[in-house]
Design brief:
The chain is an alpha/beta fold. It is built from eleven helices and 13 strands.
């Protein structure tokens, strides 16, 4: 997906440097990749923990956070890739008569108008053909995506002020999946379960050569309930509730934590059962904000008798990282997935 933004002809370029920028409820994550062909030459990381930043807060607000962050990174990039989140775009999967990608592109505006509620003149649109409909081979499954025009235009203006060209826009779930799959160790005989806990992109991914299962709503609901219950019981803000969960879990009412923890355990066990595992013996990786929850990793490992690790998106790359950068690695998965899109352009 690139929502029809103009892009550079990178295939003729000897080298390029691209930024993946992820702006979410907990801050701004930036991954800069220097690429030579399909080889990653170097990676730089940046993270600003300012909470609840949004393009709707205004271009200047984000500029004031991003500009010093890029300076601190000594960024050399001139191109940037971002991801739209749920409130910034609409995504819908539909079944339509099979046709070539070229033929469908000619009819894209018609299908978007029928399937999406707001006007085509107010948004950027794109699609991805998922594959044939297994129940009717004369049909294909198509993912339609419509990004809100005012949001995307604001991002373009922001990056123009930063002297960066916005060359590609992804959707957050795709960027997350790319970041996760590129981070998993190459294991032929052992499945991997990735538990992704985040405000907008929570899901459960079971990977055994292919993605077998995703359960977004269950994980997201458990996490949102945990945050709301902490916030309510301590009469604090969303950001402070997250800080308590990450750094001071002993201040959380044990019943609140128990409900969340048991919900996660049950969801994992049901997922493994539904995917045909009588007993699951793979590795459990935790990604996103959930990897920052202080007690979750050791408690899940003990309860499920499994190897449980924080997912490190940089594990396949040799990097000299500060302690601060090491701590922020689980929050870099989406930005990492975005930077990887630079190889596709």
């Amino acid at each position: 997906m690139n929502l029809k933004l103009p892009s550079l002809n990178w295939r003729k370029a000897k080298s390029r440097t691209v930024l993946g920028v992820d702006i979410d409820a907990q801050g701004i994550a930036v991954v800069e990749m220097s690429l030579l062909g399909q080889t990653v030459r170097s990676i730089r990381l940046g993270y600003d923990p300012t909470p609840n930043l949004d393009i709707k807060d205004g271009i200047e607000t984000l500029y004031d956070r991003l500009a010093p962050l890029l300076d601190e990174m000594q960024s050399q990039a001139t191109q940037v890739i971002i991801a739209l989140r749920g409130h910034e775009a609409m995504v819908k999967n539909v079944f339509l008569p099979s046709m070539t990608e070229l033929d469908f592109e000619k009819e894209l505006t018609v299908h978007i108008s029928k399937q999406m509620p707001y006007g085509t003149d107010e948004r950027y649109v794109d699609f991805q053909i998922v594959g044939p409909n297994p129940e009717d081979m004369s049909q294909m499954e198509v993912m339609l995506i419509a990004g809100k025009g005012n949001i995307i235009d604001a991002y373009k203006m922001l990056f123009e002020q930063l002297k960066l060209q916005l060359i590609c826009i992804d959707y957050v779930d795709f960027a997350l999946r790319n970041g996760v799959l590129a981070s998993l160790p190459m294991q032929k005989d052992e499945p991997s379960t990735v538990l992704i806990i985040d405000y907008k992109s929570s899901q459960l991914m079971l990977y055994n050569g292919q993605v077998l299962l995703k359960r977004q709503s269950v994980i997201l609901g458990l996490f949102q309930d945990l945050m709301q219950n902490i916030k309510k019981s301590l009469s604090i803000s969303d950001h402070l509730a997250m800080n308590i969960a990450m750094n001071y879990p002993d201040r959380i009412d044990q019943e609140i934590w128990h409900v969340f923890f048991e919900g996660i355990v049950q969801t994992l066990e049901h997922a493994w059962h539904d995917s045909g595992f009588e007993e699951y013996h793979g590795t459990l990786y935790i990604a996103g904000i959930g990897a920052m929850l202080k007690d979750l990793q050791p408690e899940l490992s003990k309860r499920l008798n499994l190897k449980c690790e924080r997912l490190n998106p940089m594990i396949k790359h040799t990097l000299q990282l500060s302690e601060k950068e090491q701590e922020s690695l689980p929050l870099m998965t989406i930005a990492f997935g975005l930077a990887l899109r630079g190889m596709d352009q």
